[in-house]
Design brief:
It is a single chain. By secondary structure, the chain is of the alpha+beta class. It is built from six helices and twelve strands. The chain has helices at about 105-125, 160-170, 180-190, 230-250, 285-290, 300-310, and strands spanning about 10-15, 20, 35-40, 55, 85-90, 130-135, 150-155, 190-195, 200, 215, 255-260, 275-280. The strands form two sheets. A ten-stranded antiparallel β-sheet has the order 3-4-5-7-6-11-12-10-9-8. The protein has a two-stranded antiparallel ribbon with strand order 1-2. α1 (about 105-125) packs across α4 (about 230-250) and α4 (about 230-250) crosses α6. Residues about 1-5 have low confidence and may be disordered.
């Protein structure tokens, strides 16, 4: 760790196998864009070692800060515009090889507080309608750098995946929240992986891929920005323990983890329930899945939940 007991900086290898210094490690701050926010220096100079969490703009952003001129309409009549918004990287820790699955309680809780802080800040930006956090663990899951980090996207629109969830939640709200109902059904059906005072980790009834896991806060809340301190502590606990069980049971597979919360457009989404979704990359999404929109999952969710429960520590 930077400062006392500092760990040596890591080395990243590109697709060619060539080694280069890890830009996310302490001492290499000049290799990244100037930081947006950091915790741990206690008043020290920005962009220097001593931090515990560091937030920077993505060097290769998927979103631009200013509105572009757009594109002329195609032959089908459809046009487009430059993707406007913010794309940040939250560097979890100065330690190069400390994934979420092995984080201690204090470090994990510090990260959850950083998540809430950056989520609130991005939602407050003009023109932002949706904020999504993603963790890509492992090169097969899309991680270009091994140093643990989260990508935060502040979008000028509500993406289709969230629109579909909103439509489903709104359509079923007269019968109650679908995610709250899913949690109760998971308890009855043996699909709960882990529960604590604030969250439930469960295998969804219609899991798309083997060992897909959802993390659902026990208090119905659409806005992650309103997560309570105790819920952040429970979130840190359930994420680290479930990911540790996944690593123990399946040999630390690559995975994608993402946060879905209600849009940031000021409308009423009381029927929605923010949550996280985890998809280990254990199977290939092939032609049938892409052609049909349906998934073939060879592991029953009940069996997946059982195996993860047995691997909990």
């Amino acid at each position: 760790m930077a400062g006392e007991g500092a760990a040596p900086a890591g080395v990243e290898r590109g697709a060619s196998g060539a080694a280069s210094p890890c830009p996310f490690c302490p001492g290499n701050e000049a290799l990244t864009p100037p930081e947006v926010w950091a915790e741990g220096r206690e008043g020290g100079v920005p962009d220097t070692p001593g931090w515990k969490i560091r937030v920077i703009p993505n060097l290769y952003p998927a979103l631009e800060g200013e509105e572009g001129e757009g594109f002329p309409p195609s032959a089908s009549g459809r046009g487009g515009r430059t993707a406007r918004g913010r794309h940040e990287v939250i560097i979890h820790t100065p330690v190069h090889d400390l994934p979420l699955s092995r984080m201690g309680p204090d470090d994990a809780l510090r990260l959850m507080h950083a998540y809430r802080l950056r989520y609130r800040a991005l939602c407050a930006l003009a023109g932002v309608k949706q904020v999504i956090f993603i963790v890509n663990h492992g090169r097969e899951a899309g991680a270009s750098l091994a140093h643990p980090h989260t990508q935060a996207f502040a979008l000028p629109l509500v993406p289709r995946a969230v629109r579909d969830e909103l439509r489903n939640a709104r359509g079923h709200h007269d019968r109650g929240c679908p995610l709250c109902a899913e949690r109760e059904e998971a308890r009855r059906g043996g699909r709960v992986v882990l529960e604590n005072g604030g969250w439930t980790a469960l295998a969804p009834f219609a899991s798309r891929l083997p060992y897909e896991t959802w993390f659902v806060p026990r208090r119905h809340e659409p806005d992650f920005g309103r997560a309570r301190d105790g819920e952040l502590r429970a979130m840190a606990d359930i994420l680290t323990r479930t990911l540790a069980a996944l690593a123990h049971a399946l040999g630390d597979p690559p995975y994608n983890l993402w946060l879905h919360a209600a849009p940031c457009d000021g409308k009423d989404y009381h029927y929605y329930h923010y949550h996280l979704e985890l998809v280990p990359r254990l199977a290939v999404v092939a032609g049938f899945e892409m052609a049909s929109g349906m998934h073939i999952n060879v592991v029953d969710p009940e069996e997946a939940a059982r195996k993860l429960r047995e691997s909990l520590h």
